[in-house]
Automatic annotation (TrEMBL):
Residues 137-227 form the Phosphoribosyltransferase domain. It comes from Mucilaginibacter gilvus. The lineage of its organism: Bacteria, Pseudomonadati, Bacteroidota, Sphingobacteriia, Sphingobacteriales. InterPro entries: ComF/GntX_DNA_util-trans (IPR051910), PRTase-like (IPR029057), PRTase_dom (IPR000836). Belongs to the ComF/GntX family. This is ComF family protein. PANTHER family: DNA UTILIZATION PROTEIN YHGH.
């Protein structure tokens, strides 16, 4: 950056400082959307080396997954919730890329996750995608792919029905709301492949379960799950 442009950038930052998406502190030079302190100190789950972790337990008896994981714990009113709100509703798409890369470094150490052939984000309905402009789960998938040497498939799992919000629904109601919502468009491409299904947050796991049921109809497909956050 030439000196004049750097001066102008510093001046603008002084008047309109960029703030951390998690803690709202002013960012310093070299920081991108999330401050260094938050990147180190957000509530990491460290579940990537625990096969029978709390995320995996969400799917016991419901969905046969090879491995399951979340990067952070999500507490109401906490920094992760604030960051996820900015990510989903304030057009901060790069948060997904950044956190995907952070998660990918962890998952590359895991013997199961590093064998994934494809990363498939939970899809948005085309109406919701048009409204928001991007799929936050796909942003996370792109960041993961950089570290896991896997390909992102964004058009193979399709949400064919626009569902109502899941907020305040029980797990059973959430699952019923998601039944027959998803379709695998090109199952032949996924035969005998290891698919990593990803979403932004896992609460009850109903949406991931509904997606997983459809994916596992593909012959020989094995399934793992990763999310940015696990709601506690």
């Amino acid at each position: 950056m030439n000196p004049l442009r750097r001066y102008l950038s510093d001046f603008i930052s002084l008047i309109f400082p960029e703030l951390c998406a998690a803690c709202h502190a002013s960012l310093v030079a070299g920081e991108d959307l999330i401050c260094t302190d938050c990147l180190y100190n957000l509530p990491y789950t460290n579940l990537h080396q625990q096969p029978d972790n709390i995320v995996a337990q969400q799917f016991w008896g419901k969905l046969p997954v090879q491995a399951a994981y979340a990067l952070y714990f999500f507490n109401k009113g906490g920094k992760v919730q604030k960051m996820m709100h900015h990510f989903k509703y304030d057009n901060m798409q790069r948060i997904g890329n950044i956190l995907g890369a952070v998660a990918g470094i962890q998952l590359a150490e895991n013997e199961v996750f590093k064998t994934a052939d494809y990363i498939i984000p939970v899809p948005l309905h085309k109406k919701r995608l048009k409204e928001r402009g991007y799929n936050q789960s796909a942003c996370f998938a792109d960041g993961l792919a950089e570290k896991l040497n896997a390909k992102v498939e964004v058009d193979n799992l399709v949400r064919s029905v626009a569902t109502k919000t899941q907020t305040h629904k029980s797990r059973f109601a959430r699952f019923e709301n998601m039944k027959e919502v998803f379709v695998v468009a090109n199952p032949d491409k996924l035969i005998n492949k290891h698919v990593l299904l990803v979403d932004d947050t896992v609460t009850t796991g109903a949406t991931l379960e509904a997606c997983g049921i459809e994916l596992l109809k593909v012959p020989g497909l094995t399934l793992s799950i990763a999310t940015i956050a696990y709601a506690v």
